[in-house]
Amino acid sequence: MLNNIEVRIVKIEGDCVRIGIQAPPEVSVHREEVYKKVIEANQDAATSKVPESVFELSRHFRGAARRQRGL
Amino acid sequence: MELLTSSALGALEVNDASVIDFPEGLLGFATLKKFILLERDDTAPFQWLQSLTDPRVALPVVDPHRIFANYSCTPTTEDLFSLAVRSCSDVLVLVVAIIPEDPFNTTVNLRAPVLINYKEMLGRQIISEGSGDVRTRVIPLESQSD
Prior knowledge:
Distance between the termini of chain B: 45 Å
Shape of chain B: globular
Oligomer: heterodimer
Number of strands of chain B: 11
Number of helices of chain A: 2
Shape of chain A: elongated
Strand content of chain B: 25-35%
């Protein structure tokens, strides 16, 4: 599967290099920063304060749902 | 039936049939491959993805459509293949929430939703370009005074 991925330098401008990646649709291409951001977000999620702050949030959402239904 | 003491949720009974297999773990938790999805009335609409391997790891998750009615994500063929998806209606889409001390600053990760094929009990966190930000506020700042 890995032999049909093409990486090209599209443009070099000053200290900026633009890279083009051509890959079949079943291959996902993402920048490493995205993975880093998601990893950090998952780790922060795992330390969410539970359950007190969640109860408060839950009440907010249930209140919002009631308001939407006009109750 | 197995007993688990979750740091976040206390004592839990785990039924084998409710175990979801994440062959690649979650991003940042690559070694955690078995989770259960827990619903609790007092935290609804937020549910919990509780790791069976590490009782300290429980991630709040929520159906994104409950907050953003027009939310959509775009799994790749590879994602659908690894989830053994036969019908899209078998797939549950959830987003991971970060609920801080002040819950009104809660954010959800619209960029990397968790997909669960509940027919096969297979899960995978995907990267979905164009679906939104990694940290999207669920309550806009201007509505906080409500």
